[in-house]
């Protein structure tokens, strides 16, 4: 089922209502800041500072980024769902700018640049620290260490009271899990032999729960966690695991659904322990599956082939300026590279995230 006209209208009405509310309170931001943790879906440039091959700081990445048309380190031709600012999440929350990548020069050199949050995400990271180690990404444990350092820098710059208000009022977004499957479980014969897909998803719930508990203990009270996307529909998955069928890989999508079900249960368990915390699992599975299954209803024409290169596999260093085949205009494509949506698809996903995110406010 696609984004048929009736739900789309309902969505629009709700979005309009949300936007209006925000405009009415324009003088006061709904939340003081945003903290972002996780993987390449939300990394806005931290990996630029790392010796890793999982990077996107060269063209054609960023070619449609507003104003600069230059690479930023985002794994996209333009903006990520988390920084989409037309009707978008960040602006709708009343924030004036995207949180800077914590390893960026700006964030590293100036404590004041951190007063509306920071982005700690790193392409290649997963719930398992071992997943991040495979690509030299910043593990979630390390991202948490950076967050602790962030807190003391904010306190040094703006005082303890302001730092505490920023910590408790901010929205925390966590996006992880895809790399644990695609860059680790599915390609690591040892893991494959040790765990069934069901057991592997269980093994990810413990680090998920600890991560959220750690955020809570550090003062976070509004946390959104993204579900897994339909990993079997990512162009690189179709190529690597599809056996030539050309369609979404059902086995992988099933694994994502198992994971998502457990994630919901694990999140509920944490919520029960902490009634003073808002914790929402954002479903990105269904919105992305809808785009892939019925691209035309959302104004897209290509949801199998990605724009970059042959569109079957290229990502990171393989998606470079002279990769043959890159499309001229990514607007009608759902996927920018083998693993990541286009700016245009991220805008659609952002609308869905925003709607679900209202529960955190
Ligand atoms: C920034 O924060 C660090 C760590 O708390 C502190 O040592 C440093 O003095 C701060 N710099 C400024 C200019 O406040
Ligand atoms: C995926 O799950 C569906 C529903 O549970 C099941 O019918 C199907 O056989 C599964 N497919 C694979 C490849 O595991
Ligand atoms: C890309 O295509 C869209 C329609 O699909 C069009 O609106 C847009 O102007 C095109 N952009 C460029 C740079 O040609």
TrEMBL record:
Residues of the signal peptide: 1-27
Keyword Signal listed: yes
InterPro entries, per database record: GDSL (IPR001087), GDSL_lipolytic_enzyme (IPR050592), Lipase_GDSL_AS (IPR008265), SGNH_hydro_sf (IPR036514), SGNH_plant_lipase-like (IPR035669)
Domain of life: Eukaryota
Record's keyword terms, sorted: Signal
Family annotation (Pfam families): Lipase_GDSL (PF00657)
Single GO MF annotation: lipase activity
Annotated GO biological process: lipid metabolic process
SUPFAM superfamilies: SGNH hydrolase
Protein family membership: Belongs to the 'GDSL' lipolytic enzyme family.
Protein name: GDSL esterase/lipase
Organism listed in the record: Eleusine coracana subsp. coracana
Source lineage: Eukaryota, Viridiplantae, Streptophyta, Embryophyta, Tracheophyta
Gene: ga13022
């Amino acid at each position: 089922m696609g984004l048929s006209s009736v739900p789309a209208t309902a969505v629009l009405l709700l979005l309009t209502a949300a936007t209006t509310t925000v405009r009415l309170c324009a003088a006061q931001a709904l939340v003081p800041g945003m903290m972002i943790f996780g993987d390449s879906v939300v990394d806005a440039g931290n990996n630029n500072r790392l010796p890793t091959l999982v990077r996107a700081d060269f063209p054609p990445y960023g070619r449609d980024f507003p104003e600069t048309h230059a690479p930023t380190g985002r794994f996209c031709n333009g903006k990520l769902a988390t920084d989409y600012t037309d009707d978008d999440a960040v602006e709708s929350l009343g924030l004036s700018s995207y949180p800077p990548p914590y390893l960026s020069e700006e964030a590293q050199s100036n404590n004041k640049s951190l007063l509306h949050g920071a982005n700690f995400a790193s392409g290649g990271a997963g719930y398992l620290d071992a997943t991040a180690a495979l690509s030299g990404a910043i593990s979630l444990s390390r991202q948490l260490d950076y967050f602790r350092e962030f807190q003391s820098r904010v306190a040094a710059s703006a005082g303890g009271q302001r730092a505490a208000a920023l910590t408790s009022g901010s929205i925390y977004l966590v996006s992880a899990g895809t790399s644990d499957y695609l860059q680790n479980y599915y390609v690591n014969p040892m893991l494959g032999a040790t765990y069934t897909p069901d057991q592997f998803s269980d093994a990810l719930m413990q680090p998920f729960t600890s991560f959220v508990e750690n955020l809570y203990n550090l003062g976070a009270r509004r946390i959104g966690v993204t579900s897994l996307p339909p990993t079997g529909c990512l162009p690189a998955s179709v190529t690597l695991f599809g056996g030539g069928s050309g369609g979404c890989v059902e086995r992988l999508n099933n694994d994502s659904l198992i994971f998502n079900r457990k994630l919901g249960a694990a999140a509920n368990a944490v919520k029960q322990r902490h009634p003073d915390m808002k914790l929402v699992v954002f479903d990105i599975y269904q919105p992305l599956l809808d785009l892939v299954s019925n691209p035309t209803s959302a104004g897209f024409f290509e949801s199998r082939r990605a724009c970059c290169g042959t569109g079957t596999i290229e990502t990171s260093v393989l998606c470079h300026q002279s990769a043959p085949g890159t499309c001229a205009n990514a607007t009608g494509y759902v996927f920018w590279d083998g693993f990541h949506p286009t700016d245009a698809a991220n805008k659609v996903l952002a609308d869905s995230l925003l709607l679900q995110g209202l529960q955190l406010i």
